[in-house]
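Sanity check

After download, print the first record. It should look like this:
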Amino acid sequence: MAEEAQAKLCANARQELAQHFGRCGALMAALGDETRQAIVLALLTAGPEGLRVGEITRLTNLSRTTVLRARRMADQCDQHE
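Expected structure tokens:
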């Protein structure tokens, strides 16, 4: 009986993970790009106050336009949550 309960718990956890993964499809696609990965890494090194676009461009050597485009994509991902 305990094994059956464990199997059901695992199945529920996999289903929940699949739902979360499905909602993050745009984010997963975004992170497939090395440019956006660089932005995410820069943001992860920042403190809780985050970084301004100019700071990201300085840390990543990316153009302001590229950083803003990535931000818009992230905003769209956030709206799908």
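If your output differs, re-run the checksum step. Summary of this record's structure: The helical segments are 2-23, 25-31, 34-45, 53-60, 64-79.
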